[in-house]
Amino acid sequence: MRSARSVRSVSALALALAALGLPGAPAVAAQTAPAALPAVVAAPDPATVSVTGAGSASAAPDMAVLTAGVEVTRPTADKALTEQSAAADALLAAARAAGVAERDIRTENLSLSAVYRNRDGDPDQYEATGARGEDGLFVGHRATQMFSLIIRDIEKTGAVVRAVADAPGDASRIHSVAFDVQNPQALRARARTSAYEDAKDKAAQYARLSGRGLGRLLSLEESDSGRPRPVAVPVASFSKDSVPVAPGRIQDEVTVTAVYELR
């Protein structure tokens, strides 16, 4: 009887010690300890190759941008503005009659300034930089207005230039003619394709040279190379008797950096 009670007392004591986390109950502690987890081995980073691809695309220009305007110098500001407005109206009427759409005509600059002449008799005129009369003899006022005209029918470029130059008479000013493309996005897309293929070809070559296969593309970054530049031509290239052919081609360039995995 006493033996049974002793066994029960010992068991109860062992359980109590185990619950308190004290030694003395190795059998119970061994049964409740969690199993050890297997060690995790990190996989090595994959080998990669980084390359730069360059691509370009070109297209024949299909539009022209003409920068032209009028300039009048008269003794008074009112007279200069009045004649400048009349000359500008003549220029715009000629542009519209030559086929330039209203949406393609934009005023770029409108100015009125005092003009002086050097006191030493130099006939060259210049705009005032100081107070009236401070730098020379007052001549009058100069009124200027500049426009940009988009010519979407490129075959009419010569005719538009001639019409705009003739209509305002002596007040006419032709600054520049530049050829461009109406859809630069299409040209950029072709340049991107060329740059991507160039980068992939380089990466594949490096993979072969290292005895590996070319894996997946990990990253691709495009450098901002700007949009294609218009091709400018001298105004003297245009004549009354002929319509010039648009010179050269518009070219766009793209550069990309690609990182590929090597297998």
What features would you describe in this structure?
The protein has 263 residues and is of the alpha+beta class. It contains five helices and nine strands, in the order H-H-E-E-H-E-E-E-H-E-H-E-E-E. The strands form two sheets. The protein has a six-stranded antiparallel sheet. The chain has a three-stranded antiparallel sheet with strand order 1-9-7, covered by helices on one side. A hairpin with a 7-residue loop joins strand 3 and strand 4. Helix 3 (77-97) packs antiparallel against helix 4. It starts with a helix and ends with a strand. The mean pLDDT is 82.
The proportion of residues forming helix, as a percent range, comes to 25-40%
Distance between the termini: 77 Å
- Residues in β-strands, percent: 25-35%
Low-confidence stretches: none
Query: Which word captures the global form?
Result: elongated
SSE series = HHEEHEEEHEHEEE
Describe the largest sheet.
6 strands, antiparallel
Number of strands: 9
Structural class: alpha+beta
Task: Please describe the structure with a list of short key phrases separated by commas or semicolons.
3-stranded antiparallel sheet; 34% strand; 6-stranded antiparallel sheet; elongated; alpha+beta
Write the layout of secondary structure elements.
Elements (H helix, E strand, L loop, with lengths): L1 H19 L5 H7 L15 E12 L3 E12 L2 H21 L7 E13 L7 E3 L9 E15 L5 H10 L5 E9 L3 H26 L4 E10 L7 E3 L16 E13 L1
Antiparallel strand pairs: 1-9, 2-5, 2-6, 3-4, 3-5, 6-8, 7-9
Short description:
The protein has helices spanning about 1-20, 25-30, 75-95, 155-165, 185-210, and strands spanning about 50-60, 65-75, 105-115, 125, 135-150, 170-180, 215-225, 230-235, 250-260.
